[in-house]
Amino acid sequence: MTAQAVIFDLSTFQDRALGMFPMRADIEAEKMLHEAIDGGAHCALVSDLPHSQADRRLRERFGDAAHHLFSVVLTDADFAARGHKSPYSTVLQVLGVDAGDALVVSASAPATQAARLANIRVKAENQGRRL
Questions:
Q1: Each residue of 36-56: pLDDT tens digit?
Q2: What is the C-alpha separation between 34 and 36, in angstroms, rounded?
Q3: In whole angstroms, what is the distance from residue 52 CA to residue 60 CA?
């Protein structure tokens, strides 16, 4: 993986509190997370969920390790926002990484579209099928 930053959409990670078997997209996202960390890339997480809901999902999915895995966690993301107000622009600015050096991993159509509009490479998954 050559990206300096990998930004994950929270919807990419399955809510395991539901007691379901992991889906292919969830397994691939977790693999990409570990590859990014092992490769020294910054990892960030973006969600359109309110902070309290996103925090609960993060803790259920990753336990206390969540805040060690992700350098930046942005909640209440407005994927319709453009320019410097877009969630991806905010994350890239905090990380100090250019859009061309980032990759977004998403299972959400609005998040995928926002990443493409921000000129960020996208690996999109939707219930095990590529978008």
A1: 999 999 999 999 999 999 999
A2: 5
A3: 12
Measure the CA–CA gap between 16 and 86, rounded to whole angstroms: 29
The token pair that represents 39 in the structure block: 């490769």
Average pLDDT, the chain: 87
pLDDT for 128: 44
DSSP state letter for 16:
G
CA pair distance 9, 13, nearest whole angstrom:
8
Helix 109-117, helix 87-95: angle, nearest 10: 60
pLDDT recorded at residue 28: 85
In 10 A of CB 30, how many CB atoms? 17
Neighbouring C-beta atoms of residue 108, cutoff 10 Å: 22
Amino acid 7 reads: I
117 pLDDT above the threshold of 80: yes
Residue 103: is it exposed, middle or buried by C-beta count within 10 angstroms (0-12/13-18/19+)? Answer: buried
